[in-house]
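User: I'm new to structure prediction. If I give you an amino acid sequence, what do you actually give back? Let's try with this one:
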Amino acid sequence: MTAWTLLEAGELTPAANMALDVGVLGASVAAERPDPVLRVYGWHPPTLSVGAKVDLPEDVRRRCAATGVEIVHRATGGGCVLHDRDVTYSVVAPEAGRSVLEAYRWVAGGLVAGLHLMGIEARVAEHPATARPLDCFAVATGADLEVGGHKICGSAQVRRRGWFLQHGSLPIVDIREKMASLLDESADRTSTCVEDWRPGTTWSETASALIAGFAVAWGAEPCRRRPERLEWEWGGDAPQYRGAPEGPHAAAALRDPLRMV
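Assistant: Good question. You get back a string of structure tokens that encode the predicted 3D arrangement of the chain. For your 261 residues, that looks like this:
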């Protein structure tokens, strides 16, 4: 059994979502918290999140601006993810001797269990990373989940002084053409979405199933709470993610984020 926390922050802007996840990581390291913290959240407006090591081309930025898609930078690695009616999760937890791959698979237990509750049988992808495309969903690696041989959930991780932050996205509807238009690439045909396997599934149903899946995998119901002030104020060793939004509305979220909780 694993004691764990479900952090309930309400609806936040894209920039505030990223700032809070980094804040939880920083606060967990500072307090040496032994228990994992899970967030499950959505995005408004649609947002392109960019991996920590990705240099986003200027033409992609222009297309995002023209279509009302915000841009934020993640502290975690990986490529670009279009968040548009997807369910995003973040987990902050001690490494506890786990390798990067072992940590991915430990978190995957909750995701797989949650999808199973919706009648969707997923498994951890076994493919080695052979390429690093801009579109995160174009390639499945050992950090990801597959259903029927198609990638359904992409994840990325960052580690800080014995703790890790892991992000992941589970698309509910097919947004591959929209992503392709933003990146000016051919649409990926190797991924899938919840709608393909369980038509009519809502965001709330999916989010609730994932939370229930973690309760199954970790053998305990969560302790539910709101973010603490330290988690909002943490600067840590990645201060650039406190103000990494690039869209016209995102900066307002960071002026007084406590009002948004």
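You can read the tokens as a compact description of the fold. Here is one thing that stands out. The domain at 5-231 is CATH 3.30.930.10 (BirA Bifunctional Protein; domain 2).
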